[in-house]
Specification:
Layout (H helix, E strand, L loop, with lengths): L6 E4 L5 E4 L1 E4 L3 H12 L4 E4 L11 E4 L2 E4 L5 E2 L3 H6 L7 E3 L3 E5 L5 E5 L8 H11 L16 H5 L4 H16 L8 H13 L2 E4 L5 H7 L3 E3 L4 E5 L2 E4 L4 E3 L2 E4 L3 H8 L6 E11 L9 E3 L6 E6 H4 L11 E7 L5 H11 L7 E13 L8 E3 L2 E3 L9 H28 L1
Parallel strand pairs: 3-4, 3-16, 4-12, 9-18, 16-23
Antiparallel strand pairs: 1-2, 5-6, 7-11, 8-11, 9-10, 13-14, 14-15, 17-20, 17-21, 19-20, 22-23
Helix pairs in contact: 1-7, 1-11
This protein binds flavin-adenine dinucleotide.
Flavin-adenine dinucleotide binds next to helix 1, helix 8, strand 21 and helix 11.
Length: 409
């Protein structure tokens, strides 16, 4: 029984004082917060309601393949990722630097990054030319001045329909393109700034690397928070001076009583295809008129996702949560002549996958209670880690200030 957790924070002078930091939630935000605390000599205990770490990052084994829950990629250029992990800790497999796009004439083209794939410059220019062929007068009357819809409305229509909107909705899960320009440009810069990758043993590898060095207690749901303590499901109370609430938006909202930020859902499916449906391991983003967001041959980008000797290709699909699985299959039949030979191994809609926008809440929510979570920064892994780092910094600053005052008195 865990009646009281006493963790030790070392002051700058080396003198120990009792502090206890409880981190609620073992998603990337909570694990990042606990990692930064521990790295700076402040002991942390992570309390996780479910029986696994990772939160929205989950990888399972299905039919002899690794399958992440939903389509998620790591952008190696995420600054927070590079700050948190040593390069030697990450074992990543890379996608081809480019995107498959639909073209206005009905064909499919590969838009490569010529800086990373020499010899593709001429082809890239050819594809882009087709998309910027017809300029248009922007419609200034609609949508918010700072959202992606407004920005894209100033681009040539084919560029919006075949490249900008498909990329934006794939990463924000928002068909209306209401995400702020700042988020869209951050993601585009990160996508262009480095490889899009998958950890060799699935996205769950990232939280696992962090959790291996931390104290994490699974199956421990925090039911309520009071000043200086948390109450667990079952009635147990843990006293603590600092609490980092790194629960998901719904969990944090119910613990603290604020209204949950709006969330976007994601439809996803996995298929096994006897023949490779795309020549290269680049992500395919079908045009805006189609409800399929992304198609990726996972075992081409990350061969380690094939666990046994089944030679088929693992194909990941993400799609609009508004359509049924039957419509999703009909669309795939339209896009890939070989679709009838594919075997479906999973299909589902993930509810509340991503916050639609970041929420403005005070990070120090109440005395001794600090918030972390992607909904406070940006709906990305980078945002989740950043929020965890910031929460840890706030706690550390207070711990050091207190220790210093104690030393001086
Ligand atoms: C389908 C999908 C695809 C994505 N694709 C990408 C991508 O390609 N690139 C990218 O950068 N990002 C992507 N993301 C976003 C990224 O995964 C999330 O932003 C990030 O994982 C969120 O981490 P978090 O720690 O803020 O929250 P979460 O991962 O939700 O973690 C919160 C944790 O708190 C726990 N918890 C809640 N309440 C309590 C309680 N009362 N007591 C104890 N524990 C509690 C939960 O069980 C959970 O484990 C994707 C997300 C999804 C769902």
């Amino acid at each position: 029984m865990l009646a009281r957790v006493a963790a030790v924070a070392r002051s700058r002078g080396g003198e120990a004082s009792t502090q206890q930091v409880l981190v609620i939630g073992a998603g990337m935000a909570g694990l990042a917060a606990a990692t930064y605390l521990e790295r700076n000599g402040v002991s942390a205990l992570v309390l996780e309601a479910s029986n696994r770490i990772g939160g929205r990052l989950e990888t399972r084994e299905i039919s002899g393949f690794l399958a992440d829950r939903g389509f998620a990629v790591i952008l190696e250029d995420y600054p927070e990722l590079r700050r948190l992990f040593k390069p030697s800790e990450l074992n990543l497999s890379r996608f081809y630097p480019g995107l498959y796009l639909d073209m206005p004439d009905g064909s499919r083209a590969l838009l490569s990054d010529p800086r990373r794939i020499p010899g593709t410059f001429a082809e890239t220019v050819k594809v882009l030319r087709k998309l910027v062929a017809s300029p248009r007068i922007p419609n200034r009357a609609t949508s918010h001045p700072l959202d992606l819809a407004r920005l894209f409305s100033m681009a040539p229509e084919p560029l919006e329909t075949y490249l900008l909107a498909p990329f934006a909705r794939a990463v924000t899960l928002d068909e209306t393109l209401a995400a702020p320009v700042k988020l869209g440009s951050f993601l585009a810069r990160r996508f262009l700034g480095g490889p899009a990758s998958l950890p060799v043993s699935g996205v769950k590898e990232l939280p696992e690397i962090l959790a291996a060095k931390l104290k994490v207690q699974l199956g421990t749901r925090v039911e309520s928070i009071a000043s200086g303590s948390v109450r667990l499901e079952g009635g147990e109370v843990i006293e603590t001076e600092w609490i980092v609430v790194a629960a998901d938006p719904a969990g944090a909202a119910s613990l603290l009583g604020f209204s949950q930020p709006p969330m976007a859902d994601q439809g996803y499916a996995y298929f096994l295809a006897p023949e490779r449906p795309l020549d290269l391991p680049a992500v395919y983003v079908p045009h805006r008129g189609r409800p399929i967001y992304t198609v990726a041959v996972i075992t081409d980008a990350a061969p380690s996702y094939r666990l046994g000797d089944d030679p088929r290709h693992l194909v990941s699909i993400s799609f609009s949560p508004e359509i049924s699985a039957t419509e999703m299959r009909r669309e795939l039949g339209d896009l890939f002549p070989s679709f009838s030979s594919w075997e479906e191994i999973e299909s589902a809609v993930i509810k509340a996958a991503l916050p639609r926008s970041s929420t403005r809440l005070p990070l120090v929510y109440a005395k001794g209670v600090v918030l972390a979570g992607d909904y406070l920064a940006s709906p990305t892994l980078n945002g989740a880690i950043e929020s965890g780092r910031r929460a840890a910094e706030l706690v550390m600053a207070a711990v050091y200030a207190k220790n210093k005052a104690r030393e001086q008195s």
